[in-house]
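User: 5,10-methylenetetrahydrofolate reductase, Jannaschia rubra:
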Amino acid sequence: MAVFGFLRSSAPPANGVLADFLTGASLEVMPRTAEKVDDFRAILPRGTRVYVAHIRGTPIEDMVATAARLRAEGMEPMPHFPARIIADRATLTDWVARYRGEADVTQGLILAGGLPEPVGEFSTSMELLESGAFDGFERLHVAGHPEGNRDIDTDGSMKNVSEALAWKQKFSERTNAAMALATQFCFEAGPVIEWADAIRAAGVDLPVHIGTAGPAKLQTLIKFAIACGVGPSLRVLQKRATDVTKLLLPYEPTEFLSELAHHKAANPAFNIESVHVFPLGGIKASADWLNDHAKDEE
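Assistant: Predicted structure for 5,10-methylenetetrahydrofolate reductase:
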């Protein structure tokens, strides 16, 4: 499905390199945050991919209803399927059937989930992918970890993460679905570029959808970054917190994404193909930022 440029705004013209890089950008909602939006068509262009995050305890009925609403309002819903909150194969089959039947879902983010222990028979995204439940899906995204993941590699290495990435690469070669890596939000371009180049050199050619935090108060971002285990790039926020000229200003991802955009422009084979925005400061703030900076295709 074609993804259109973001809506025209009254802001100054967007930087062309950044605007090109933001083509096809996605956002994320939860059922409770989606309820705060009267109509997604008023803030996002038709065809925008919107992830629907599934937090443990959220009824599947609410998840499916949110996906169906996004579909009805012209968006492309991509619900999360966190392995560790899915009780068993029957539950997984039921979820997929509901999404397919009630919201015409053809895309999914397949991940382990943040629980330390699984509630049922699934504990990894690989087990979900191997189940066959997603046969017929057009697109499957899986997790990428530019800064590692302490839940997976408790020793701080990248060993288990790298092994999982190699498995996902092999799976991508035997599925008909388009696949990509969706990452946690990051704040520093240099380490992201090094990681993306390193996984490509290791034989992983899955395109990357790099995660970024949308505009938000600095205190909010630091709280989320610590809770979500964001690694070395947290220093960018900590440094900003010591600058009194920036302390009271909302964080925006412009500098971070512009660095990646210029690197992409100079290196077209660079494997970051899209941007995924975590609206930690609210959906409207993130949508407004995208509208101001993304490409106008009218």
